[in-house]
Design goal:
Two copies of one chain form a homodimer. By secondary structure, chain A is mainly α. The first copy, chain A, has a domain at 54-194: Tetracycline Repressor, domain 2 (Orthogonal Bundle). In chain A, 72% of the residues lie in helices and 0% in strands. In chain A, helix 5 crosses helix 7, helix 7 crosses helix 10 (148-168) and helix 10 runs antiparallel to helix 11. The radius of gyration of chain A is 20 Å and the shape is elongated. Chain A starts with 5 loop residues before the first helix and ends in a 16-residue tail after the last helix. The structure holds a DNA duplex. Chains A, B: Keywords: DNA-binding, Transcription, Transcription regulation. Chains A, B: InterPro entries: Homeodomain-like_sf, HTH-type_TetR-like_transc_reg, HTH_TetR, KstR2_TetR_C, Tet_transcr_reg_TetR-rel_C_sf. Chains A, B: GO terms for molecular function: DNA-binding transcription factor activity; transcription cis-regulatory region binding. Chains A, B: Residues 28-47 bind DNA. Chains A, B: Residues 5-65 form the HTH tetR-type domain.
Chain lengths: 208, 208
Amino acid sequence: MRKLPAKLASQLYGAAELIAERGLDGTKIEDIAEATGIPKATIYYHLDGKNAVLEFLLGDLLDMIAGAVGVAVTSEENARTRLEAAVLAQLGVMLEHPSLCRALVGDLGRATRLPELAAALRTAFYEPIEQLLADGVSDGSLRQVADPAAVALSVFGAITVAGLSAAVEGPSADPSADAARFSAAITELVLDGLATPGSRDQRRGDPL
Amino acid sequence: MRKLPAKLASQLYGAAELIAERGLDGTKIEDIAEATGIPKATIYYHLDGKNAVLEFLLGDLLDMIAGAVGVAVTSEENARTRLEAAVLAQLGVMLEHPSLCRALVGDLGRATRLPELAAALRTAFYEPIEQLLADGVSDGSLRQVADPAAVALSVFGAITVAGLSAAVEGPSADPSADAARFSAAITELVLDGLATPGSRDQRRGDPL
DNA sequence: CTTGGTTTGTACTGTGAGTACAACATACGA
DNA sequence: TCGTATGTTGTACTCACAGTACAAACCAAG
C-alpha cells in the first residue's frame, strides 16, 4: 500500500482541489473516483479508504516542505540568514500548492489524528525552526530568549499561519512574488520586532 | 434555535471533551446524547444537527475570547501596552478552555466552512491585532512596517498557534501561569525580535 | 381542564463507506 | 503456449449512522 504506482499517484492529485473545497467529509469516494478517473474499486485496492487519500496527498506536501526547508537550512551562512531562507522556502512551497494547503487546514484535525502525518507535520514545520533558533544563539546571530521553546512555537505559528491563510485566500497569479512579500514581512517582524527604537529595552533590565 | 435554554446549554458542554478527543466525525450523536444526558430527540428539537452542536460550542469560545480581548484593548494605555494585554487575555481564555480549543483545531475546516463561525473567528482573533498595530503607529508606540496586513497576520499566527498548541498538549495544572509564560515569550518576540543588538539594522537602510 | 410549547422513546428512511467477488487484463518465466 | 501472479474494474452487496416522523407524555399559564 505504500508504493502506489506513479500514474495513480499523479491522477490522485486531481482530488486535491475537491477535498480543499468541500473537506474530506463533504467529498464522496465516488466523487474522488470521478474527479481522478480512478474507479472506486481501484482506489480501495491500493488505499485503505478516504483517510489514506488525504494522508497520501498531505504526506507529499509535507515532504516537499521538509525538503525545501532542509536545503535552505543546510548552508554555510549564519543562523539568522538561514532562518530567512527557511521562511522563504516554506512559504514558497505552500503558495505553490494552495489546494493542498487548504486541504491541510480543512482537515487539520484528521491530519493530527493520523500518527504518521502528525510526525511529518512536526518535521516539516516546527523542528527546523527550533533548530535554527538554537543555532543562532550558538553562532551569535540570534538573541538568547527566556523561553526558547515557546518562541520557536510562535515563530512557527507566524510563518505557518501566514502561509496557510495566503493559500486559503485563493491561488495567486504569482506565487513566488507573494512568497517573497510574506517572507519579507515575517522576517522583519521576527528579527526586528515591532517596538519603536526609542521604547526598546525599557522593559527588561538584563541584556542577557 | 438561537436561544437554547440555559440548562441545555450548560449540559452541552459535556460534549466538548468528547469532540475534542475524537473529532466531530468520530463522535456519534448518540454519544453526545449519552455524555450530556440530553436525549437525541431533544438535541434535534433544538439544534440542526451535529454541526450545530459544534457551532454552539465554538461560538461561545469565540465570544469569550473576543470579549476578553475587547476589554484588554479598551484601556487608556498606548498601543504597545494594550497589545501585551491583548496577548495575555487571548491566551488566558484559550488555556482556560483547552478542550474547546482542541475541538476548534480538530474541526477547523468545518468551522471555517460555517459562515457565522468564520466571521466570529476573524473578530475574535485577527481584527483586534490588526487594529492595535495600526494604533501603535499612530501613537508612536509601535514601529511602522512595510506590509502591515502581512505582519498583523503573522502576529495573529504567533499568538494563536502558541495558544492552540498549548491547549492540545493537554490541560495544565495552572492555566493562568502558563498563559503568563507564553504571553511573555510572545511579547518578547513580537516587540523586540530575535536579531542580536549588534546585527540589528544591518539589513535595511531606511528607518522609515 | 385546556391549549401550546417542550420532552422523549421508538421506529423508520436514506446515504455513503467499505467489502466481496467474479471477470478480465497484463506480464513474465518455463 | 500455457500457467501463475499481480493488478484492474464493474456490480452487488452490508452496515453504521445521521437525520426524520410521530405519538405519547409532560408541564406551564390562562
